[in-house]
Structure formats: structure tokens, C-alpha cells
Amino acid sequence: MRYFHAVEQGLTGVSGPGVPADNEAGVIGWGTSWRMQGYLMLAERTGDPRYAERLAELVDQVMEARDDVRNTEDHRGRSRPVWSTSGKFTVSSVVIPDTEGHPALEVRVCPPHTRHLRVTVEPEPEGRFALTVAGPKRTHAFTVNGLSLDPADSRRADRALYAAYEQRSGVTARLLPTPHPHIRSGTYTPRPAMVALAAQTGMITYPMAGLVRLAREHPAAVPPSVRARLDGYLDAAVAAVRAHDEQWATTGDGRGHYRWLPDEPVSFAGAELPTNEFLAMGRTLVQLAVVTRDEEFTQRAAAMARALRGDLTVRNGVATWPYWPSFGRVYKGWSATGSPDDDGSLYRPSYTPVTVPEDVTHALIDIDFLRLYHNTPTLPPVFTSGDMRAVAATFTSHVVRRHRLRSRVRHDVGGNGRAGTDREQAHVAAWLPLREWSPAVARKVRAVQPDFPPPPLMGVDTYCGALLALWG
């Protein structure tokens, strides 16, 4: 446990030891949540009520950062019991006025690298204009000439930008009703939308619901002062999950997942979340199924388990699976239809297929869901012992490979990817729970686990420290 405490004591800035006042940069969703999971695991491992007390302190601060508590609105003007984010995660947009100051053209730009982005409008002959999107981290400027605000013009701005769309720039536009035909030239700064992302909601609520489960199964590990707050934590977790009900979907063969809505201002609007991201919600649903006995939570958790199981490809006893679900739009790719209304996404008319294997960092969530689901006997059986052995073999055969004179973590679960980074190697403890199905897992983890994670220390390092204490 020294590893865990050393990381916690070394967290600085937005990473810790406290909790950010909001989740707009995604720090609570992808940082604090990992720390909360670490404290939950140590409370379970040791039975020491101080870990549950510290977890409750973090939960209380996280609850204060909810949109409805802060009176913060999302992109639809709603203030809900969730933790919206923006910044690098969401589409940035700016409304450019006409020369009379009326809103004329909304320009939208997909991540990444929308911070410090600039949209420049320059006049051209015959009342037309050029539009350029550029930023310090973008490899090239996106420019389209000869645009018009006239809805009847063949170079109508939104349609011309649609026709010029390219995947790497991710620029689209929406023409607004305007009484004046000329746009105001100048340079404009897009702002990112505020969106509650299901993956981050799942990350945050998982340890909250897990603490409720811990109190019921190991009451001595949770002191009375914390037990008195558990009803509020459970209500908060349920309310946050329910806020994403509109995004829940199932395939024809019963595989469950979350998806972004077609008009949601994110890069992959209209597409299914990556496997690790919908399983982040899946872990919360497992806990809620246990503590509430709600059949809907049980069935949704089972449907997501079937989604993961359906994507496991086992060859010679070793499993692989893709980053994007194989039944989804991003894995298959899509082409522009000629009309944004028919594309299934307002922000990306087309996208080339992405069939890469799951990477070892995001696999942390997949592995935890797999273990949690399989070891919860009240859930419908989905994974077999053979499946568990095959995923354990993923680690021993694909993830840890000889690199020059020593073993090294690979970047993904496919077995043929590049060598992993030092940061990825610091997350190797995530595979330890699979030692139950392969004794070689623990041995190989010890062979590559660093003595301490590389700087800067992050919340996920706390989580890995707890895994080492729990399973190492």
C-alpha cells in the first residue's frame, strides 16, 4: 500500500489532493474518479474505515461540482445532476454575424486541438468571402473561398463547407436566417460546447454505487458517519445514470451500449461510444443492479456484457477485441449522403473505418468490467471460464512481449502493435485481477511493473496502486 499512498501524497494541482470545482476540463471524470476507485478497493481490501471516510470526502466534493448544484447549463440549456465537460472533448463553435450584427453563420469544428483555434473571415469580390480555420496545434489551415450567405447561391456557405469537408479538420457550418447578405469580416474564437459525457458519468458514479454495495456486504468497513450519507450517494448515482437514458441502445441481437445523439456536439455524434466508454457506465450498472435489485439495471448490464463478449475473438486460446465496437458506425465507417439530415451526424458527414485493437490503457475499464460482471453471481451468466482464461492470455501472450533485452508492455491487445510508453507500462497492474485464471499474470506484472509511475502523477496511478495492494 506504500505505492498507493506515495502517489496520493504526490498528486498536485488539479489532480489532487482535493477535487476541482467543476468537470469542465474532464479532470473529475478521468482523474478524481480513478482515485475514488482506489479508495474503494482499499476499503474493501483492508476493512479500515478510514478509506471509506476519505472516499466519502471526495464524493462530497464531487457532488458539489454537479451542473445542477453549480447552476451550470449544458448545450441544450439544461442544468442536470451530472458533470458536464467541454474543452478538448466537445465540438467548438462560433456564430459569425452579418454586417448589421445579426447572427449569420455558425461554424463548428470537431476535436482535437480546438483550443486557441481561430476562424477568420475575409471579404472577396461580388459580396463573397473566404473562411479559414487554423490553430497552433493543427498541422494545416482549412480554407474555403467564394462563400455566400445567399440561400439561393450555388456557393451557399453551409453547403460549400459541407462539400469541402475533410476528416482531419472536421469543419462544418449552419446557415442562420439573416436579413443582410454580407458577412462581417474578422477573426473569431470558437467556444467548446458543454456536454455531459456518459463515459465520465460512469467513471464518477461507479465508486459511489460501489461504496453503497461495500456497506451492505462489509458493513464494518464503512463507519456510521458515512453510512448516514449513502442514501444520498445512491440517489445521485441513479439520477446521473438516468440522465443518459436517451443515449441507451441495443442491437438486434441484444448487445447493449450507449451512443451519442446525432445532434450532440461531439466528434462522433450519432455513433456508438467506444467499448471502454460504455463499459464505464456498465460497471456502475452492475453495482446498481446489486444494491437496488432493479431488473432494468440488471438487463442493461447483461446487454453490455454481451456486447463485449460478442467482440472477443479467440485464436489459439488468446482473446483480442477492438477499441470501437464492431457493430458500430466508427468501426464500419460512413460516407456523406449529400444531406446533413441524412448523414446521422451533424458534425462529421463522413469517416473512414477505424478497426484498431483496444489499447492497453483503455483496457483497464474493460478488464474491470469483465471481472466485476463475472464475479457477481446475481447477474445473468455471459462470460465463461474459458473467456476469462482467454483474456488473461491476452496479457501473457499479446500485451507483455520481449522488446530487445527485456519484457515490455505493448500499446494494444492485438499482439502486433508498437511498444508501449512508460506511462502505459505504469498501468500494468490493471491486469492483476485476471491472475485467478492464469497464475502467469502476476509473474509477468511483476516483471514489468515500474517501482513508481513516471511524472506527472495522475489519478489512474492511485487506482493502479490500489490494485497492487489488492491483488499484487
Describe the structure.
It is a single chain. The longest helix is centred in the N-terminal third of the chain and has 20 residues, at 27-46. The chain is of the alpha+beta class and 472 residues long. The chain has helices spanning 2-10, 27-46, 49-64, 67-70, 157-163, 198-217, 224-227, 230-242, 275-292, 295-311, 329-332, 340-343, 363-374, 385-399, 422-425, 440-448, 459-471, and strands spanning 92-97, 103-109, 118-123, 129-134, 142-147, 171-175, 186-188, 191-192, 248-250, 256-258, 313-315, 318-320, 400-403, 406-409. α2 runs antiparallel to α3 (49-64), α2 (27-46) runs parallel beside α6 (198-217) and α2 (27-46) packs parallel to α17.
Low-confidence stretches: none
Briefly note the structural class of the backbone. Answer: alpha+beta
Distance between the termini: 10 Å
Largest sheet features: 4 strands, antiparallel
- Helix count? 17
Spatial strand order of the main sheet: 6-2-1-8
Secondary structure layout:
Blueprint: H1 2-10, H2 27-46, H3 49-64, H4 67-70, E1 92-97, E2 103-109, E3 118-123, E4 129-134, E5 142-147, H5 157-163, E6 171-175, E7 186-188, E8 191-192, H6 198-217, H7 224-227, H8 230-242, E9 248-250, E10 256-258, H9 275-292, H10 295-311, E11 313-315, E12 318-320, H11 329-332, H12 340-343, H13 363-374, H14 385-399, E13 400-403, E14 406-409, H15 422-425, H16 440-448, H17 459-471
Antiparallel strand pairs: 1-2, 1-8, 2-6, 3-4, 3-7, 4-5, 9-10, 11-12, 13-14
Helix pairs in contact: 1-17, 2-3, 2-6, 2-17, 3-6, 6-8, 6-9, 8-9, 9-10, 9-13, 10-13
